[in-house]
Design a protein that fits this description.
mainly alpha; binds zinc ion
């Protein structure tokens, strides 16, 4: 089982190194899984939807404004013609009966057209009001979402700053332990660490239990560990981790 030798002191230092690496792994995981990031993803999706709604509402409004000014111009033109016809009628300029009749019938049909056009204007104004309400609602929601994005971003940045601070401490502590771990022990440790995809590569043997996988060692395994010299680096066969014997190991 053992193919690397290291003093019990060096093995204890390796345990400290594993503690720091575990902490760094935990911090890295926290950094990657901050709930604020998921919140921001959702908020940004909402912001994009609101922006789309605002664009649609703006287009709608400008279309309605164009239609409205066209309809108002039509009303004006008809009104001007009615006024002109009425002036001619009132001034008594038309004496011919047929001409008088035709002028009166023109006024009648112009009045009907004026009424229809005024109805169109009213309907367009109502639609414009509704479109403006939609635009106002979207604008207000955009402001709310913007405020939420700012608040969540600030919260995420504060969490990241705290994680960075803890990581800097753990990194410094790791660097302080590193010179006390012999090169071949470190190489073995690194190999196990890489294979375990960032998990804990060295663990304490504590009252017959592996501190890495939490399995109890069998009697056979415990006897093997007991039989190993203090400077032999032993590993838990179940999980492959380096098992470090301490005063708590019960050996
Ligand atoms: Zn284990």
């Amino acid at each position: 089982m053992p193919f690397v030798k290291a003093s019990p002191e060096a093995q204890l230092r390796l345990l400290e190194l594993a503690d720091r690496d575990t902490e760094l792994g935990r911090l890295d995981h926290r950094r990657r899984t901050l709930p604020e990031n998921a919140e921001l993803d959702q908020l940004n999706e909402r912001a994009a939807r609101v922006r789309d709604a605002m664009t649609i509402a703006d287009t709608n409004l400008s279309d309605l404004d164009r239609d409205l000014s066209r309809a108002e111009k039509d009303v004006d033109q008809v009104t001007v013609r009615i006024d002109k016809d009425n002036q001619r009628l009132n001034a008594g300029q038309v004496s011919n009966a047929r001409e008088l009749e035709s002028l009166q019938s023109e006024v009648t049909s112009l009045r009907k057209r004026q009424g229809d056009l005024e109805e169109v204007v009213l309907e367009l104004m109502e639609r414009r009001e509704a479109a403006q309400a939609l635009r106002d609602g979207a604008g207000a929601e955009a402001e709310t979402v913007g405020g939420d994005v700012a608040a969540v971003t600030a919260r995420r940045d504060a969490a990241l700053a705290e994680i960075d601070e803890q990581a800097a401490k753990a990194t410094a502590a790791r660097a302080a332990v590193l010179p006390d771990v012999p090169a071949d022990l470190l190489a073995l440790y690194d190999r196990i660490l890489r294979a375990s995809a960032g998990g804990r590569a060295a663990a304490e043997l504590r009252r017959g239990q592996c501190g890495g996988c939490r399995e109890m060692l069998s009697t056979v395994e415990l006897n093997e560990v007991r039989g190993a010299a203090a400077d032999e680096v032993v590993r838990h066969e179940e999980c492959g981790r380096i098992l470090v014997r301490t005063a708590e190991s019960g050996m």
